Structures are given as structure tokens and as C-alpha cells.
Input
Amino acid sequence: MNLNLAMPWDDKCSTDPSLVFYSHQSDTMLFEKGQRIEIFCRGNRRSVQMAWSLHRNGIQKPFLSGMAEARLANVYRMVFETEGLRPGFCDLRVSMDSGMEKPTPGVCTFGWRVKHMAIRETRPADFRAFWAKAIAEYAAVPLDLKIEGDVKTYRGKEIDEYNVKSACLPPDYDPAGHKWEEVESYKISFAGPGGGRVYGWLARPKGKGPFPGMLVLPGGGFTARPRPLEHARHGYVALDVQIHEQDVDQPRYETLPGYYDHEVWEPMEKFYFRNVYLRAWRAIDVLCAQKEVAKTRIVAVGGSQGGRLSLVVAGLDKRIRAIVPCIPHSSNYPHLQWVTACNKRNADGADLAGAPPEVETPDGRCMAYYDPMNFAPDIECPALLNAGLIDPISPPYSVWAAFNRLGSSDKTIVPLPGLAHDWSAEFDRRAWRWLDERVRE
Output
């Protein structure tokens, strides 16, 4: 769901195979009860000893350290008392000494009573009014939907070949999920909120509908977009949208001001992500305009920034039937800023008894309107999330803040122990089945 990238497939993984962590108490590395947490680490080298340090998630300075208990066969045992641990996540960092000059480093993140993690409330009283006004202004602009190129058909192995060369997917990771072996695809565009055009690739099963619709939202950066052929093969009319008013297949992309540097925080209406969110929202209208789409069966998926946008569109529009936000980025802004501040002053963060402090600066006031966790209470549709527990880009305290605040009664989050900002074929296979259940007539 999140590996929608316009580049060749690469099988490199975010996990370092040198050290493997596990716990007999919890294979997810999430712990809810007990007096102590027991974690083991196995090395793939001859070793002498292992030192460890315990950190609040994302914070460089440890609040506890020690030596691991050596077991046979390069295995080490570490035990931590839960008394005094704050609900949330901890990074366990280790250094395995093999007698060579450079010890082998490793990291494992575990969660303690994460459902009770303290979250700073920042949602403004006029949050809904702010976005209702923005949507009303953009909705008044005619959609002006256009087909920008020829319709191209892909069959069987052609889809596999396209995925490997152009969509960063393995050749066929989910054959049991195929609904159609022939799909067609073309480029579309529609009117943007800033007077430009928003471009996307549309792909659909080559058959008689109606089909469920799927909004495939992009990860961060300025890049080309891939055709969502795999999504169409799974039975969806899928739209992969480029959210910067840039074409989907340019040879090079210009970085636009305000995206990375956040030049404008105030007034909030001028913040770069206002139009990003609106373009993602308007793509729902594009799906609804397709005669083959079942208007009551539209879902949104994406990874990283795409996970963030999945949360946003579901919070803004009840037409979304279900969402799969993978490794969603940028939620829980007060905690993100608190981690940054701790690392700048070399603090261990262990003295934080409750929620992080409010960010009482222009960026904090602005981000209160754009933080994905503030859209979460308005999300009532089913939601399936995942999170890499050692992910430094979408850290678990960030992802769980959005998950814990979801208004949906049907919500699940899947921890991926040992993975960082990465993709899991098995998660996607399970997500396809999960979606099938929720878009069934």
C-alpha cells in the first residue's frame, strides 16, 4: 500500500541483519502488563560481551544503561523493570563487542502501555470551520477533468514487468488477490486550488463495473508517479495523484518553496500543505466522476506522506469508506518538537511525566491545523495502519498518536518490529483482504 514509487524494484531492507532482537513475552514488542520486560539479542558474529542503553523513543541521551547477560551461541539477555516506565516507546541501543576495533551497534524499539501514551491536545476550536471554508472555496472551482493521453492496456506479465521497472514492486507478490488480469490506464488532470492543474494516473480493470475506487496518495518529495496497475489488478479503479501541480512523468522535478523549508507559517491559510491537502481531497471528486466507480465504496491508501494524506482526506470527507495509512508521517507535532529540543540540549527526556509541552510559536500554532492527529477524531471509517518500530522518519510515538485519537470503532494498527521506513509484502497481502471485507457490497 505504501511502496508506490516511480523507480525500479529494489530488495534492500531497512533492517541490519547483524543483530536480531526478540522477546518471548511479545512478538510485536508491545507490552501492556507485567513487572519486567525481557528482550534477547542474537548476533551473527563471534562475540565477547554486549553493552546496552535505554532511551526515550528518538532521544539520543539514555536514561539507563548496563551490560547484557551473556548466553550461549552469541545470545544476550536484557531485563527492564516496568515500574517507572512512562507509557510510550523506548529505544534499546546495544553495542556487541567481538574483540575487533569496531563493536557492532543495533537498535530495538519496544512499547509500554502505548494506548495510554500522553498526547498534547492542540486541535483548535475552529478546526472544522477552518477546513470547511477551505473546501467550500475549492469546491466552487469547476473540476474541469481531462484525459491527457491515450488509454494503454496491460495484461498479466506486462503488469509484473511494469511494477518491477517503474513502480518499485516485486513481480507478483499477491497472486491470490488478483481480480482482473487485464487493466487499462491513462493520464488525467483536473483544476487545482492555485489556478494550475493537478495530474494523476488512473488505472481500472478492463471489464464492466461498478468497481470500488481507490485513492493512492504519494510519499514525500517531488517525483514522478507510477501507474497504479497493481491496484487495478486487485479490482479497483485507482487514481495515483501528484499533489504539487506538477505532471506525473516529467524528466526532472523542481523543488517548490515552502515544502521543505516551510517559509510561511502565518497566516495559516498560506501554509504550503493547505493546497496539498485540498488537492488530495479533490481527487475524491475525480473518482466519483468515473462512471465505473461505486461511489459508496471509495478507499484511500498511501505510505509516509501518503499515509498522512490518507488520514487527512478521511477526516475531511465521509465519502471515504476505509483507509490504509502506512507509516504515516508528521503526526504529533508537539512530541516531534520536544524530541528535537531534548536532543539539542542533550537531555534524556526522562523527567517528562505527562504530555509534551505545547509549541507556542508560529509553527506550533500553524501545525495545529495541519497535524494528522487532529484530523483523526473526525475519522469514522475503518482504518488499518502500520508502523516500523525503529522508523526515525515516522517514529512510533508519532504514528500511535494518530491511531489512539481515531474516531473509528473499527481500527487496527500493525507494529513492524525491527523495520524502519519500509514496506512489508505480507502486510500488503493482509491489507488487500481487509479492504475486500470492507468494500464488499
Notes: The domain at 127-439 is CATH 3.40.50.1820 (Rossmann fold). The chain has two domains: 19-116, 127-439. The CA atoms of residues 386 and 427 lie 8 Å apart.
